[in-house]
Amino acid sequence: MEKIIIVIVVLAMLSIPVLGMLRNDETPEVVNDNQIEEVDEEEVEKESEEGEEETDYQDYIRSNRGGSVDIAIVLKNIVEDNDENLIFELMLNTHSVDLESVEYENLVNLKTDKINVDEGFSWQLTEGSGHHLSGELKLPKTYKGQNIIDNDTEFVEIEIKDLGGVESRKFLWEKDELNNIK
Fold first, then answer.
1. Dist. CA 34–CA 37, nearest whole Å
2. Is the Cβ–Cβ distance between 59 and 174 less than 8 Å?
3. Which of 46, 44, 59 is nearest to 173 (CA)?
4. DSSP string, the chain
5. For the chain (length 182 residues), average pLDDT per consecutive 10?
């Protein structure tokens, strides 16, 4: 019995170099986990009935993985019309925080190259519960009589403070993206 075990071990050891020669010698590509983005193939090249290319929702999603909460956020006005409000859709995931009890409207600050807004936000849960949910942060398009975003706005930055053990998370959309606001 001992001889059979020794023969099996020797054969296994001899087969390792052979298997190594048979495998593909290409160096595996290293991908930064923060750069991985799920893409729905059907969404990438949508075209409307008139033949114009529709704005791809995926291009405007910003995300942050940190602390105990993962956040993805999109400035929905880029892909959907809304005359009254700026709308930011938040998609949140965690395994340790009750996301439903958070008052998101009190954790948010919006900044552009011209204006800083830290009040007037409203929060509405749209889907999910507990540890996995989505909702909309809304803010009127004007603040103190001034348009928050206009044709000259260089950037919009949303900051979410003190969520899931992370002091500050910032999400940025730049001028070329803001030009697509409907």
1. 8
2. no
3. 59
4. -HHHHHHHHHHHHHHHHHHHHHS--PPPPP--GGG-----HHHHT-B-TTSPBPP-GGGGEEEEEETTEEEEEEEGGGTS--SSEEEEEEEEEESSS-GGG--GGGSEEEEESS-EE-S--EEEEEEEETTEEEEEEEEESEETTEESS-TT--EEEEEEEEETTEEEEEEEEEHHHHTT--
5. 50 43 38 37 38 65 95 94 95 92 96 96 94 96 94 96 96 94 78
